[in-house]
Automatic annotation (TrEMBL):
Protein name per Swiss-Prot or TrEMBL: Taurine-transporting ATPase
Family matches, as SMART domains: AAA
Top-rank taxon: Bacteria
PROSITE patterns given in the database record: ABC_TRANSPORTER_1 (PS00211), ABC_TRANSPORTER_2 (PS50893)
GO molecular function: ATP binding; ATP hydrolysis activity
Family the UniProt entry places it in: Belongs to the ABC transporter superfamily.
UniProt keywords, alphabetically: ATP-binding, Cell membrane, Membrane, Nucleotide-binding, Transport
Length: 438
């Protein structure tokens, strides 16, 4: 077995939310990154992946546990570890060359040496000839290459890539990924190990020797899958497709309440909490996916990869929709397959009013937050309420951005199910006109 470069034991991190509540974001994370390997990390947004990477890079301190880099406890940013972010804050007034050299300046390296190294890194990443260009003169893909050159110029031992390809269009992202893999394969870069956070299951399977699946609330490693295929890997090959299928299955196992991750399922926790992250799926997509699933060739049951292909939704888009359907009991997720339930069938086959009625009924029983809002509204003679208590409740558990996302999803679902109405301008919640539920 190869030497361990980076080692995390029992790492935990708690953040304080805006209203002062403590929220565990990472718990008991044990992880080894070994010489010569690429590891991919997949997990829901908000599960703590970026925080974990920052801890590994020494940019953020863990509250619990230990991080060792080449056997030594890590205190503060480590020289041998570089991070690539989703989008780079390149300095707009500096040229490509100057932006890349910045990575070295902090080290007090002589100017001539800095220039030489930056030129080499720029050439390595395919931008030779653009040294004098300003960021605004470059495409998004080229700017991201500058960011990667800035990370590589320090000749890092470990490269941590945080959704480095996800802000790019599909083809540009693929090109860049392939180029990085080629550099890695040819020994063109000095890096000994890479950890890649991705949103994209295919990307993870094409790149990594191991795929880790992260659970949320608190974030921890749920399981891993090793990928022993030689690189470059053909995304169309049966081996790759089978692995993608397997990862889908692992990511959706027991996932009817995805917001709470799987710890809750494993420990047999009882009632779902009032506040949970809701899969951000819009109703039109849920309807379209359920219709597609019901029809031939799927006839009610589909593997997620072909469903992704047929629906034109990427995995990152498909998974929340599938999770939402499962949460509402309209479909079931079972080892990477999505299967329509009898209720889901009634829903797709029904006229619009029936759909709305069924949807509303499922929201009341399966989404505690929506049930709670509705019950609170029914206590009011006017059938109206300000959103303040609901917002407060959300902010006890979630940060502002997440709270907004949950509210937005809950409102759009509740509107479709005619459970409640919400006016974003006035912050007023109300029972819908001509209410069918009371
Ligand atoms: P991911 O990268 O998986 O989307 P993050 O690591 O960015 O997740 O965030 C995990 C959780 O920690 C989120 O709820 C986020 O809001 C919260 N969080 C991250 N950084 C901070 C911080 N500095 N202060 C408070 N909360 C934070
Ligand atoms: Mg992140």
């Amino acid at each position: 077995m190869s030497a361990t470069i980076l080692e995390l034991t029992g790492v935990g991190k708690t953040f304080r939310s805006a209203d002062g509540h403590l929220r565990p974001v990472l718990q008991d994370v044990d992880f080894h990154l070994r010489d010569g390997e690429i590891v991919a990390l997949l997990g829901q947004s908000g599960s703590g992946k970026s925080t974990l990477l920052r801890i590994m890079a020494g940019l953020v301190k863990a509250d619990h546990g230990q991080v060792r880099y080449r056997g030594q406890p890590l205190f503060g940013p480590a020289r041998g570890i570089s991070m690539v972010f989703q989008s780079f804050a390149l300095f707009p007034w500096l040229t490509v060359q100057q932006n890349v050299e910045l990575g070295l300046e902090a080290r007090g390296m002589p100017k001539a040496e800095r220039e030489k190294r930056a030129e080499a890194a720029i050439a390595l990443i395919g931008l030779a000839g653009f040294e004098g260009a300003l960021p605004r003169e470059l495409s998004g893909g080229m700017r991201q290459r500058v960011g990667i050159a800035r990370a590589l110029v320090t000749e890092p031992d470990v490269l941590l890539m945080d959704e480095a390809f996800s802000a790019l269009d599909v083809l540009t992202g693929e090109r860049l990924r392939e180029d990085i893999l080629e550099l890695w394969q040819d020994g063109g870069m000095p890096t000994k190990a890479m950890l890649v956070v991705s949103h994209n299951i295919e990307e993870a399977v094409l790149m990594a020797d191991r795929v880790l699946i992260f659970a949320s609330d608190p974030g921890r490693i749920r399981c891993q899958l090793s990928v022993q295929l030689p690189r470059p890997r053909n995304p169309e090959s049966a081996d790759v497709r089978a692995l993608i299928d397997e990862v889908y299955a692992l990511m959706t196992a027991g996932a009817s309440r995805p917001g709470r991750g799987h710890g809750a399922v494993e420990t047999g926790a009882a009632a779902p909490p009032l506040v949970e992250r809701l899969p951000s799926a819009d109703v039109a997509r849920m309807d379209a996916l359920l219709e597609l699933l019901a029809e031939p060739p799927f006839n009610g049951r589909a593997d997620l990869p072909p469903l992704s292909e047929e629906s034109g939704l990427s995995d990152a888009e498909l998974l929340p929709v599938a999770h939402a359907l499962a949460l509402l009991g309209l479909a079931q997720l079972d080892s990477g397959d999505l299967q329509i339930t009898p209720l889901g069938r009634r829903y797709v086959e029904g006229p619009n009013e029936l759909r709305r009625g069924l949807f509303g009924q499922q929201l009341m029983t399966h989404v505690p937050l929506i049930g709670h809002i509705r019950h609170s509204l029914e206590q009011e003679a006017t059938g109206q309420l300000m959103d303040t208590p609901v917002r407060r409740l959300l902010s006890e558990h979630l940060n502002d951005e997440e709270a907004d996302a949950v509210m937005k999803t809950a409102v759009s679902w509740a509107r479709h199910g005619e459970v409640f109405e919400y006016d974003y301008n006035t912050g007023k919640l109300s029972v819908p006109d001509g209410d069918a539920l009371t």
